[in-house]
């Protein structure tokens, strides 16, 4: 029996090592920019510390700190954008659909318009209806142009007016943890959401 | 039968009173009574009115409207000083050197103060000099605190194009030479006190020869591309000589080119010894 | 223990355990990755298998060069480059605001080995006025590194590259306006040693030529500013080695000893001029043209160094003295400062170079003693002529020579009409063969060749009435030769005709 005891021990050891190796890539990618912080820690790295006030699609004022408590997937788009923005929104919808049920209440989606002059709250509201965005988890925000610039700067998003009155802009989904710190960036319009979902799952744990 | 009865007396008195009040208030507040002759309201204190115009950006880029129209606006006559910024810090302690978030300013923020508030000696030395070692977020927050905003690149460059005597000084060889000579000098330890230079055509001072200044949209100085890693964006980030794609290659405005290059090297959190700002404001 | 004594549980479990163990070991072998897959954000790229270890590069100021690399394998090299804007001497009494890599012009010399992974940190000093970056010609990749190192004052950038190609490469700043950044001194050299290293030499030095464009004239004192117009027009005010006039002169000269082999790593920062690099008093035994890795030429006096390029030259110093390094577009050396020195000490070698052996006055032809010599020469020459005339053999040989020469002239000039056999053309051109008209009067025949003739003449009883044009293209000697030939050919026999006689005939206006 001693022999079998040793064998079992070795078996368990080997299994643990394998599991450890499988688990580490996840931690590395999810720890994109910083060390793990419990949700109650100071928010020096939170983008919610900006003092701007925004208006939601149902014309209510909102300060970004109200987004705390949920993992947020945020993108900066505008409603008259023809090519890139619909893809961005569809990526976010796919993320929403791919989330396991227990995470639905823990993850929110935020669209901030780059064109607050044209995308008034009522325009955003109509857009939300058209794109079938569930108001329970989606926030569409309109703000002062200077505040839009400030938020874009924090997220590292650049944008610029083009000849047609629209914008050339960085295509990116930003995943914020429950205190508003950037934990992951999905760059460009590519369709592979594996790492993004992983990051959301990880951020939802804290 | 009385012709003017009580009601009619009351009515007349009421009308006359109304008329007198109207007349009196027109005397006291003439602008309310009739619009000003030129339609331009007085600029807020410390600012100048800049009439609208057009700014030709340095680089021709496909898909970007050229040239950029500049709507009328107000601009600070002088850059924001250390004294003014100290008042901002007092009212907003979260912007103190020891408190500021690393997301909003890098480690050299307000380095020249050496503490949350400068010592009395340091304060005297820097009070009337433009504040530097401030990040874009700090400048942005200050302007917002003043119910103002940062000027856009087009607005800043439009005003900076002027010489002392004309809105467009780019063809004045002597003036351009003087501007270029500033770049030949090593960086001074501190920018000179505000008002050291001449006011330009618009009545704005210290745009040249003092330091670099933040603008609201410095990050859009180049084409963002599909993502930050885009090769196109990277090409524009380091750029090449002034002749490439410049709107008027035979009249390259080297000082403007160098300002453009400088802006491309910045990030929002950067604080630099020779980088400050001034605020702008929309018309009411 | 026999099978029957084992419990029924053991009998089921044991095989399962065995199976489980095998499966797990199999899984471990199959699933373990061979190398680390996930790069850390901000970390260095995955290195190739042969790169081992890490070191920090030793950087030197010109003219010194870091020592040759002794390791035999590639490694990760950390290079810290600091950009500083400094006011320094450009020439005596002349200051300039240089933008530098490392505080001096040219910038630090970087020495790595082929295959090294270089992690380059570009640190822009907080007191700089301008943003800067770096483009290293040794880098294979966008901008040579410039796109990844654009740095504001008081900040730092980092990027890594593998030194794929060996050679001597220029690096420079590439921030707009690039011409201005380069013209202000932002260049240096990076040497990527080939895998087998460079052959050993006794001395290695780092020299970099470049130009400066200032608002003031050459030598005008004070702090000078950059003149963009002169730079665009390629009219430099200063052309110098190692960043200032006389940077390598006097006490700062390069040094070597007799018998040593010297290797110069020479760069040309430009921004505009190509250099014709020459060391006065030396010949380059070997030239690695344009800084490449093959010795392209040996025994070279002057080699070209392109702007933004380099060259490596090697030579053995045999004789002591001061050797001047120049740009052989020589006005740059004498009027703009492109002059450096190599001082060689050691024993003399008179055979290779003797120094001055004779020193006496030279008077030239106009001096009285010179005139006497000229007279003596004339007398001697006359005596030679008389001797020749008096000695029949010499005279005959001379005549034979004339006949040969005359034949050539005849065939080219006269045979057209008078035919190669001297027979002429009946009724048109008179014959020369056996011509009584020709042989009767030598002087007349000279006159006819020189001036031509027209009107009727009778030759051997036949009358010819044609025109012979003057043969103007012949010299006096050629006339003499051709007449000697015709007077001694096809049965004619006569004496020679001398050039003097022809000359007389020319002057004779009969």
Characterize the structure shown.
The complex is a heterotrimer of chains A (206), B (284) and C (510). Chain A has 5 helices and 9 strands. Chain A is of the alpha+beta class and 206 residues long. A 7-stranded mixed sheet of chain A has the order 2-1-5-4-3-8-9, sandwiched between helices. In chain A, strands 6-7 form a two-stranded antiparallel sheet. In chain A, helix 2 links the parallel strand 3 (71-77) and strand 4 (107-113). Chain A is globular and about 75 Å long. By secondary structure, chain B is mostly helical. In chain B, the strands form 3 sheets. A 3-stranded antiparallel sheet of chain B has the order 1-4-7, with no helix packed on it. Chain C is an alpha/beta fold. Chain C has helices at residues 8-31, 178-183, 228-232, 331-336, 368-390, 392-413, 415-418, 436-440, 442-451, 476-486, 499-507; strands at 54-56, 76-91, 94-101, 110-113, 117-124, 135-136, 155-162, 167-172, 187-193, 203-212, 222-224, 238-241, 254-257, 261-270, 275-280, 284-288, 297-300, 302-305, 309-316, 321-327, 339-345, 456-459, 462-465. In chain C, strands 1, 2, 3, 5, 7 and 11 form a 6-stranded mixed sheet that branches. At the A-C interface, helix 1 of A face helix 1 of C.
Q: What is the gist of this entry?
A:
With 206 residues, chain A is an alpha+beta fold.
Give the topology.
The complex is a heterotrimer of chains A (206), B (284) and C (510).
Chain A: H1 2-30, E1 53-56, E2 61-63, E3 71-77, H2 84-98, E4 107-113, H3 121-130, E5 138-142, H4 145-155, E6 159-161, E7 167-169, E8 172-176, E9 182-187, H5 194-203
Parallel strand pairs in A: 3-4, 4-5
Antiparallel strand pairs in A: 1-2, 1-5, 3-8, 6-7, 8-9
Chain B: H1 6-28, H2 30-33, E1 47-50, E2 53-55, E3 68-70, E4 73-76, H3 82-91, H4 120-126, H5 136-145, H6 153-160, H7 173-184, E5 212-213, H8 231-238, H9 254-264, E6 275-276, E7 280-282
Parallel strand pairs in B: 5-6
Antiparallel strand pairs in B: 1-4, 2-3, 4-7
Chain C: H1 8-31, E1 54-56, E2 76-91, E3 94-101, E4 110-113, E5 117-124, E6 135-136, E7 155-162, E8 167-172, H2 178-183, E9 187-193, E10 203-212, E11 222-224, H3 228-232, E12 238-241, E13 254-257, E14 261-270, E15 275-280, E16 284-288, E17 297-300, E18 302-305, E19 309-316, E20 321-327, H4 331-336, E21 339-345, H5 368-390, H6 392-413, H7 415-418, H8 436-440, H9 442-451, E22 456-459, E23 462-465, H10 476-486, H11 499-507
Parallel strand pairs in C: 1-2, 2-5, 3-11, 4-9, 10-14, 13-21
Antiparallel strand pairs in C: 2-3, 5-7, 6-8, 8-9, 10-12, 14-19, 15-18, 15-20, 16-17, 16-19, 20-21, 22-23
Helix pairs in contact in C: 6-10, 9-11, 10-11
């Amino acid at each position: 029996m001693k022999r079998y005891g040793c064998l079992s021990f070795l078996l368990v050891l080997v299994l643990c090592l394998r599991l450890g190796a499988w688990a580490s890539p996840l931690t590395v990618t999810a720890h994109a920019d910083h060390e793990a912080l419990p949700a109650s820690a100071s928010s020096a790295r939170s983008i919610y510390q900006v003092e701007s006030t925004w208006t939601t699609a149902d014309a209510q004022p909102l300060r970004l700190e109200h987004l705390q408590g949920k993992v947020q997937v945020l993108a900066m788009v505008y409603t008259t954008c023809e090519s890139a923005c619909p893809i961005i929104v569809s990526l976010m919808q796919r993320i929403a659909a791919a989330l396991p049920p227990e995470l639905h209440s823990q993850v929110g989606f935020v669209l901030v318009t780059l064109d607050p002059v044209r995308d008034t709250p009522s325009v955003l509201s109509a857009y939300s209806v058209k794109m079938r965005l569930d108001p329970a988890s989606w926030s569409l925000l309109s703000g002062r142009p200077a505040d839009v610039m400030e938020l874009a700067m924090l997220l590292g998003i650049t944008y610029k007016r083009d000849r047609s009155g629209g914008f050339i802009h960085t295509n990116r989904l930003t995943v914020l943890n429950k205190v508003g710190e950037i934990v992951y960036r999905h760059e460009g319009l590519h369709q592979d959401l594996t790492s993004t979902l992983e990051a959301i799952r990880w951020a939802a744990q804290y | 039968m009385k012709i003017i009865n009580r009601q009619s007396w009351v009515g007349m008195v009421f009308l006359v009173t109304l008329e007198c009040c109207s007349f009196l208030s027109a005397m006291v507040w003439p602008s309310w009574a009739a619009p000003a002759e030129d339609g331009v309201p007085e600029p807020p204190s410390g600012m100048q009115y800049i009439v609208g115009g057009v700014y030709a950006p340095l680089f021709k880029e496909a898909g970007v409207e050229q040239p950029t129209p500049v709507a009328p606006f107000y601009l600070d006559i002088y850059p924001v000083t250390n004294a003014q910024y100290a008042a901002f810090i007092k009212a907003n302690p979260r912007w103190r050197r020891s408190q500021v978030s690393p997301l909003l300013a890098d480690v050299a923020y307000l380095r020249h103060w050496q503490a949350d508030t400068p010592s009395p000696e340091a304060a005297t030395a820097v009070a009337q000099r433009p504040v530097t070692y401030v990040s874009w977020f700090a400048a942005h927050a200050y302007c917002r605190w003043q119910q103002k905003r940062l000027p856009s690149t087009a607005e800043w460059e439009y005003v900076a194009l002027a010489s002392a005597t004309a809105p467009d000084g780019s063809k004045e060889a002597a003036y351009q030479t003087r501007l270029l000579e500033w770049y030949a000098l090593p960086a001074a330890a501190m920018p000179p006190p505000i008002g050291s230079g001449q006011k330009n055509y618009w009545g704005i001072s210290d745009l040249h020869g003092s330091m670099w200044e933040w603008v609201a949209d410095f990050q859009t100085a180049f084409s963002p591309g599909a993502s930050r890693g885009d090769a196109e964006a990277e090409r524009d980030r380091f750029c090449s000589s002034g002749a490439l794609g410049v709107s008027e290659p035979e009249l390259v405005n080297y000082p403007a080119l160098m300002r453009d290059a400088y802006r491309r090297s910045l990030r929002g959190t950067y604080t630099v010894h020779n980088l400050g700002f001034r605020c702008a404001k929309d018309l009411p | 223990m026999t099978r029957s004594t084992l419990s029924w549980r053991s009998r089921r479990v044991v095989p399962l355990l065995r199976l489980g163990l095998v499966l797990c070991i199999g899984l471990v072998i199959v699933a373990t990755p061979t190398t680390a897959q996930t790069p850390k954000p901000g970390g260095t790229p995955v290195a190739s298998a042969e790169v081992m270890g890490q070191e920090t590069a030793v950087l030197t100021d010109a003219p010194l060069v870091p020592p040759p690399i002794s390791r035999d394998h590639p490694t990760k090299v950390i290079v810290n480059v600091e950009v500083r804007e400094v006011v320094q001497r450009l020439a005596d009494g002349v200051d300039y605001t240089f933008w530098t890599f490392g505080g001096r012009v040219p910038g630090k010399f970087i020495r790595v080995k082929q295959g090294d992974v270089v992690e380059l940190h570009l640190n822009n000093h907080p007191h700089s006025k301008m943003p800067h970056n770096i483009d290293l010609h040794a880098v294979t990749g966008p901008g040579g590194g410039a796109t990844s190192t654009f740095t504001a004052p008081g900040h730092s950038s980092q990027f890594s590259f593998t030194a794929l190609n060996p050679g001597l490469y220029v690096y420079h700043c590439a921030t707009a306006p690039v011409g201005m950044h380069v013209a202000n001194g932002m260049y240096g050299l990076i040497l990527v040693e080939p895998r087998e290293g460079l052959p050993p030499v006794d001395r290695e030095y780092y020299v970099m030529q470049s130009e400066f464009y200032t608002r003031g004239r050459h030598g005008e004192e004070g702090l000078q500013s950059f003149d963009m117009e002169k730079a665009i027009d390629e009219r430099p005010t200063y052309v110098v080695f190692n960043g200032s006039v006389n940077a390598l002169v006097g006490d700062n000269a390069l040094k070597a000893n007799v018998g040593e082999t010297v290797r110069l790593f020479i760069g040309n920062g430009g921004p505009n001029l190509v250099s014709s690099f020459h060391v006065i008093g030396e010949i380059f035994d070997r030239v690695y043209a344009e800084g490449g890795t093959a010795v392209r030429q040996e025994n070279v006096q002057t080699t070209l160094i392109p702007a933004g390029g380099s060259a490596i030259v090697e030579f053995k110093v045999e004789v002591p003295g001061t050797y001047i390094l120049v740009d052989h577009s020589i006005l740059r050396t004498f009027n703009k400062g492109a002059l450096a020195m190599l001082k060689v000490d050691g024993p003399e070698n008179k055979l290779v170079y003797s120094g001055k052996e004779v020193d006496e006055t030279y008077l030239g032809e106009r001096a009285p003693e010179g005139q006497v010599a000229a007279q003596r020469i004339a007398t001697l020459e006359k005596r030679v002529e008389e001797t020749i005339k008096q000695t029949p053999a010499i005279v005959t040989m001379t005549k034979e020579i004339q006949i040969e020469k005359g034949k050539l002239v005849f065939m080219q000039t006269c045979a057209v009409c008078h035919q190669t056999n001297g027979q002429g053309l009946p009724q048109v051109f008179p014959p020369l063969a056996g011509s009584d008209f020709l042989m009767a009067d030598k002087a007349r025949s000279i006159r006819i060749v020189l001036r031509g003739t027209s009107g009727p003449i009778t030759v051997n009883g036949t009358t010819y009435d044609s025109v012979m044009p003057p043969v103007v293209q012949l010299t006096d000697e050629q006339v003499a030769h051709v007449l000697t030939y015709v007077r001694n050919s096809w049965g004619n026999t006569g004496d020679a005709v001398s050039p003097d006689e022809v000359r007389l005939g020319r002057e004779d206006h009969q």
